[in-house]
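input
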Amino acid sequence: MTNALDDLRADLVAEQEALDVVVASIDDDQWQLATPSPGWTVADQIGHLTFFDRSAVTAITDGEKFREELSALIDGIASDGLDDFTLRSYRALTSAELLERWRGNRQLLNEAARTLTDGSRLPWYGPSMSAKSFLSARLMETWAHGTDVVDTLTATRPATDRLRHIAKLGYLTRAWSYGVRGDEVPQGDIRVELIGPSGDLWSWGPDDADERVSGSAEEFCLVVTQRRHVDDTSLTYGELGREWLVRAQAFAGGPSDGPQPRGNT
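output
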């Protein structure tokens, strides 16, 4: 019998494998194509995932070592910048070596994730996270950076109901999207109602909320991972919802601004 964590771990593996299919057969020139993330190539997107998948293993298996590595990361950012510190070693690899390293770190993460229980809390680059939120965040990162890769290569990666994990994380991080900027969350509740890829309705928030955000689950996930501006979607929302969605940030780290509306670029 499987439990929710087993299912989530399996979905994370499936999301990683879906991205692997996209990059496994591209040539060296395609690995070096510029992606929508400024200054990042396709290889950098995979290098980023490789670095933080390995960090996730440490967070699961050795919390004290992770905190030491976090301190080193903070120092490295101050002296070298985030990209140079996290990507330097991966930029020195060939595309084949990078792909092999990413696959190896993914396997280590899968093995470490098997030890998690519902009560586990894990350190990360922000508040500590429950095991479910932690694995959901890894899935979210894989899908979000994979979106940049797919957009660059004009590849195909069908939307799946794995997006439910990302959509839920997006809803749960509304307060974080304000707090990471030092802003107060405005008063008022928001209910999120989304249509998943299989046609199911997914919803979070009170029935009597002040406002609703509704529409495509895929578009909502693109917004909360800062891969699309809300103006480039068909999502519906009120004033309170828009104030959230223009700053929505479902990932840890410092405050980040997403893309401008495509009409303004």
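quick obs: Strands lie at 121-124, 126-130, 190-195, 201-204, 211-216.
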